[in-house]
Amino acid sequence: MIRKLALAFFLMLSALPALAVNPDEILADPALEARARKISAELRCMVCQNQSIDDSNAELAKDLRVLVRERLTRGDTDEQVFDYVVSRYGEFVLLKPRFSLKTALLWGAPAALLLIGGTILLAAALRRSRPTPGPAPLSPEEEARLKELMREE
Amino acid sequence: MIVELGHFALVISLVVSLLVSVVPVYGVMKRDAALMALAPIGTLVVFGLVAIAFAVLTHAHFTSDFSVMNVWQNSHSLVPAIYKISGVWGNHEGSMMLWLLILTLFSAMVAAFSSNLPVRLRTLVLAVQGWIAAAFSLFIVLTSNPFIRLDPAPVEGQDLNPVLQDVGLAIHPPLLYLGYVGFSVCFSFAVAALIEGRIDAAWARWVRPWALGAWAFLTLGIAMGSYWAYYELGWGGWWFWDPVENASFMPWLAGTALLHSALVMEKRDALKIWTILLSILTFSLSLLGTFLVRSGVLTSVHAFASDPTRGIFILVLLLLFIGGALSLFAFRAGTLRAGGLFAPISREGALVLNNLILTVATASVLIGTLYPMLMETLTGEKISVGAPFFNLSFGLLMVPLLIVLPFGPLLAWKRADLAGASQRLFVAVLAALAVALAMYYAENGGPVMAILGLAAGFWIVFGALADLWGRAGFRRVATDQAFRRLFGLPRSAFGTALAHLGFGVTVIGIVAVSAFATETVTETKPGGVIDAGGYQLRFDGMKDAKGPNYTESRAHFTISRGGATVGDVWSSKRIYVARQMPTTEAGILTFGLSQLYVSLGDPTPDGGIVVRIWWKPTILCIWLGAVIMAVGGFVSLSDRRLRVGAPRRAANRGALAPGLEAAE
Questions:
Q1: Given A32, A42, B90, B181, which is the most exposed site by the fewest CB atoms within 10 A?
Q2: What range defines the domain where residue B549 resides?
Q3: What is the per-residue pLDDT across B305-345, written as a single tens digit (0 to 9) for each?
C-alpha cells in the first residue's frame, strides 16, 4: 500500500536498480546484437511498471531478451520477431502500439489536431488581416435624399 | 500534544478557507467593501495555519515520533537528518501537505502584493484560490490525514524508501510544486476575470509574472527530477516518458504556451481566448497530474477500483474545477473581443503558431498517457504506450517548432518582413551547420541525422544571439554605441534570448547523447582494464563499507586516457537494512560537459563482476539548458515592467530611452 502511494515521485516507478543486458547474453555478431537491442527497447517488461526488457533486470525480461536473440540467430526478420512475441504475450508487450483501428486515434491525433487547428487559425488570421470593407456606397435614391437634405441646410 | 496542535491548525485552516471562498464573493455581489476585505486577511490566516500544520508534521518527522502513523510508515530513527526532513513529503499524505502549503503560500503572496489590483478582481482571485485550498484541505483531512496517531507507539519506523534517500528528494518536489501549483494563480485570475467579464491588457500584465515564475520553477523542478533519475536509477536514462513524468511535462508545455500568449495579450491586446484558455488548461493539467499520480489509477485500473476513495475524491474535484472553469469559459468566450489586428506573418502570428504546436504537443502527450487506461476501461484490452511512441510522435511535432523558433523574436508586431528576418538569420544558419558538422566529425561519426538535430540546436542558440545582436544594432551603429544599447536593453529581452538559448542547449544535449553515447557491458576481475568511450578503466577491487542505515560493496576504478591517469571513481551497490532493498549508486566522472557513468552489475561465479560503462557526450547540456531557460525566466521576471504595480514607472523608462521601446 505504502509503496503504491509512494509512486508519486518521479523515480518510484522504476525503483529497483535496472541492469539490463548481461555480458553472457550478448551475441557475437555485432549487427545482430544491434538489432536485438533495438527490438528489446520496444518490448515491454511485463512484470515492471514502465520499462523495456532492454532496461530491466527482471527474470522475465532476461528470458525475453534471450528469446529475441534466439529468434534473430535463427534468421527471423525484426517483423517476425515482433509477431512471434506478440503471439505469445499479446499487443500489451509492444511499447509502440501498432497502427490499427483501435489505435487510430492515438496515432492520428497529433497530425489531425495540427491540421484542424492550423486550418482554423489560418482562416482566422486571413480574415483578420483583410481590411474590413467600408460601408456600402449609397444607392441613387439615398444620394438624391442626401442632396435634398444638404440643400435644406 | 504538538501533533494535535498541527491537526487542529489544519482543520481550522479548512474552515477559514471555506469562509474565504464564500463570504467575500457575497461581498462582491453586494458591493460590500468590508466583506471583500475579508479575502486578503483570511488568505493570510489560512497560510499561517497551514504553515503551522506543516511545521508540526516536520517536527514529528525530525524527532522520529513513531506514534504518528505517517512517521512510522515513512521514517526510521537511523535515517540521516536531512532525509528525515525531506521524508515529510516523500509519501502521499506529506506531499499533499506540501502541495497545500505551496498553494496557500501563493495565495498569501497574491494577497500581500496585489494592493494595486482592482478590488473586485483581487477579491475574486483570492476566493478562487480559497476554493482550491478548501477542496484540498478537505481531501487531506478526510482521506489523507498525516496526523493520525498509533497507540501503542511502535519502537522503530519502517524506513523511508531508499530510492528517496537522496538530496534529490529535498529539492525536486518543492521546486516541482512551486511550478505546478504556481499556475493555480493564473487559473484563479482567469476564472475571476471570466466572472467579472473584464479581460484586457492590464489583466495580462498582472498574470504574466505569476506564469513566468511558476514556469521557471517548473522548468527547474523537471530538470532536477530528470537528473535525479539519471544518477539514481543506475542505467543512465534521463527521461522515460513515464506517466508520472508526463504529468509534470504537460503543464510545462501548456505553461510555455501560456507565457507566450500572455505576452501578446499584454503588448497587443490580442490572443485573449488563447490566454484565458491556456490559464485554465495549464492548472487543469496540474490537477489532472495530481489525480493520475495520487489515485493509483496509473498502477492499474484495478488498483484504482479496489481503493477508490482518494481517486474518486480527486476525480470529483477535477471535474468540478476543470468542468466549472471550462463551462464558464464557454459561457463567456463570446463576449471576449479580439483586440489588436495582425497579419499572418507577424510576431503575433509566430506566437499563434507556437501556441498551436505546443498545445498539440500537450494534447498528444495527454492522449498517449491516457490511451491505455481508457482502452482498458472501455474494451478490457491492454495496450502499452511507451517511450518509443512518444519519441516518435513528440519528436516529429517538435521539428516545425525548432525550425521557426528563431524567427519569432525577430519579427515585428502587426506586420513583419519575413525576407528581412531571414536575411538577418542567414549567418546563424551557416554557423549552426558548420558547428554541427564539426561536432559530428569530432565524434567520429554516428547517425547522419544527428547533423540535422545538432544544427537545429545550434540554430536556436545562434538565433537567440542574433536577436540580441540585432536589437543592439551592431553593424548598423558604431560598435561602442551598440554595446551601450545592448546593456540598455530591457531585461525581458535578455530573458527571451536566454530562455531560447537554453532550449537550444538542451536540444544539443539530447541529440548528442542519443546519437553518440556508447555503452560497454563486460565482466571483469580485480586488475582488469576496460576500454570505454576512449578511456581505460582499471578495476582495482571491491571494498565493503557501512553507512548509517545501509551496507554497501564499493568498487574502485582508476580512469586513464592515453596512459595518463585522469581520475578515479567509486561505484557501489547498497542494501538498505530496514527494508532489505538493494540500490545501485553509479559512479559518475565528469569531463567538461560529458560524463563517464559506471554502474555495477551482479558478481559472476568465478569471482569477477559485471560492469556497465556509458560514455555520455555533452549530456550535461540537457540540464544546463533547462537551468539557462529558468534563469531566462527569472531575468525576465526582474524586468521592472513586469513587476506588479510597475506600469507608471515603465512610462518613465520609455521616456528615457525612446529608441529601445521602439526596438522591441
A1: A32
A2: 518-616
A3: 556 778 888 888 889 999 999 999 998 887 777 667 788 88
Q: Do B233 and A9 touch (CB under 8 A)?
A: no
Four-CA torsion B465, B467, B472, B477, nearest 10 degrees: 100
For chain B, percent of residues with pLDDT exceeding 90: 52
Answer whether residue A134 shows pLDDT above 70: no
Of B163, B343, B371, Cβ closest to residue A106: B371
DSSP sequence for A115-141: HHHHHHHHHHHHHHHSPPP-PPPPPHH
In a shared domain, residues B134 and B188: no
Residue-wise pLDDT for B580-632, tens only, equals 888 888 899 999 999 999 998 888 888 888 899 999 999 999 999 999 999 99
Largest CA-CA distance found in chain B, in angstroms, rounded: 84
Res. B563 pLDDT band, cuts 50 70 90? confident
Residue B618 to residues B141, B154, B463: CA-CA distances in angstroms?
Answer: 47, 49, 21
ipTM topping 0.90: no
CATH class of A28-96: mainly alpha
Q: Which domain-ending residue is among B160, B188, B218?
A: B160
pLDDT value at position B482? 85
Q: Is B554 found in the same domain as B425?
A: no
Task: Place A18 in a pLDDT band, splitting at 50, 70 and 90.
Answer: very low
Test the B interface: residue of A3, A11, A13, A47 with most B CBs within 10 Å: A11
Neighboring chain A residues of B361 at a CB cutoff of 8 Å: 110
Q: If you average pLDDT over each of A89-93, A132-136, B496-500, which comes out highest?
A: B496-500
The count of domains in chain B is 4
CA distances to B245, B472, B476, B479, B486 from B483, in Å: 42, 7, 12, 6, 5
Is the domain of B460 the same as that of B572? no
Q: Which of B6, B209, B217, B19 is closest to B102 using CA atoms?
A: B217
Question: How do strand B535-546 and strand B587-591 relate by DSSP bridges?
Answer: unpaired
User: Which residue(s) pair with B551 in the sheet?
Assistant: B546, B575
Chain A residues lying within 8 Å of B306, measured CB to CB: none
A101 interface with B at CB cutoff 8 Å = no
The pLDDT of residue B97 is 95
Greatest Cα pair distance in chain A: 107
Residue B395 has pLDDT above 90, yes or no: yes
Give the H or E element holding residue A86: helix A78-89
Of A11, A23, A122, nearest to B233 by CB-CB distance is A11
Interhelix angle B347-379/A104-129, rounded to 10 degrees, is: 150
B234/A96 touch (CB, cutoff 8 Å), yes or no: no
Residues B232 and B359 in one domain: yes
Contact at CB, A97 and B389, closer than 8 angstroms: yes
> Do B179 and B288 belong to one domain?
yes
Calculate how close chain B gets to A73, using CA atoms only, in Å: 20
User: Are both B309 and B192 inside the same structural domain?
Assistant: yes
Do B430 and B493 share a domain, yes or no? yes
Element (H, E) at B569: strand B564-576
* CA B311 to mean position of chain CA atoms: 24
CA-based angle A122:A126:A130, to the nearest 5? 170
Is residue A2 packed enough to be buried (19+ CB in 10 Å), middle (13-18) or exposed (0-12)? Answer: exposed
pLDDT level of residue B659 (50, 70, 90 thresholds): very low
Rounded to the nearest angstrom, the minimum Cα separation between B438 and chain A is 26
Is residue B558 within 8 A of residue B538, CB to CB? The reply is: yes
Domain stops at, among B145, B160, B175: B160
- B366 and B255 within one domain: yes
A125 touches chain B (CB under 8 A): yes
Answer whether B346's CB lies under 8 Å from B305's CB: no
